[in-house]
Amino acid sequence: MTTVGGDENLVTADVADVRDLVDYFRDVVPVLLGGGEASLADQLADATALLTSFVNDTTVRAVMIHRNIARDASDKDSSEIVVTNEIASLGPNFCACGFVKKNPKEPLFAELLASQLHCVVFSAGKAFEMMYSLVQQFLQPFFLNATKSSSTADEDAINSASKALSDLETLLSHLQQDTDIPNVDIVSIKVITDAVAAAHANGQTPTPDSLGSAVHDPEVVKVLDVQVHRWVKEIQKITLLEK
Length: 243
Hints:
two-stranded antiparallel sheet, 8 helices, elongated, alpha+beta, single chain
């Protein structure tokens, strides 16, 4: 047992161990991420070494728990829950909650975990859209309210920080509007590539005549027709983008 807190509000608490941290995560994470209880229990058990480091090592500051919301229940090759010791995105199909120690130099206490850990929930979707939302809807309003209620904060520092936040919001807005350009998979047709190669080998410029009798072969025409339709669909991945 250890006494923690200031002189006016002393609290006696047990130093946390891995079991306390696991119990805490099992209580709060399914609520924050909307499910995943069974997978969470399994993954926390597998992450004992990682969680032990988080509890005992002052240099390990974070635990992040991800939930794959797009995972099919029949998928046996991947886990619904992933536990890591770094703040990172695993992709648009994952929502996550990150836990960071407020003061890494202080031990964690079983009864005080909720007050000793900062927790941020990251929604599924594109990373820049999520970060823009966090800054615009949470960080900016919170900062403005905090500065209004502070009578001791330096005015110049407030103005500089406010400008930096506004600049960050603007930059994230631009980034979240950028559209990811998908890869276009254009598969060549062997009879054509062979004809082109033969023409080049003979020092000639490839023309439809380079195909010879193949231009009248119904099977070749059928393959060409199917492949061209595939090309059109691949190209439309880009030409039909909304942005």
